[in-house]
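User: For my dataset I need records formatted as: sequence, then structure tokens, nothing else. Please produce one.
Assistant:
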Amino acid sequence: MAGADGIAFVRLTEVPVGDILTHMSDPVVAEHMPLLTGRWDAAAVAEFVAAKEATWARDGLGHWAILVDGRYVGWGGFQKEGDEWDFGLVLKPDAFGLGLRIARRALDVARADPRIPFVTFLLPPSRRNLGALRRMGAEFVGEVDYAGEVFRKYRLKTAPG
């Protein structure tokens, strides 16, 4: 169900494979995703969706497809990494300007979940515009290696106190 702002979080299984395939095959999207390698096809989308659904089964939370006014604009959500919940957001280029609104809605979910006292963000060095992240109150933790790539790690408290 969409909120008053038209944003809805639905399971990735509810979005046509072609929408995800087109999104993840976009070279503009790939610029900021160093772990995105290889060609995307229907089999790659099926594997991706199955992996994201597995996190829901394992952790009770995961990544959603994001709709705005019923239109698929990207995917994002939470993935448990050790003892931390990492938040990721991958939007279609024509929806990049919606990132802060969508992130705020998703972070409301984290704030309502007592298992999540904070979230982390892993951003590739290619991401230069970090003003919104700072305005939300995220603090730089340091650089980390994830799957052989360097990312900048930020942390945002979600629990009061």
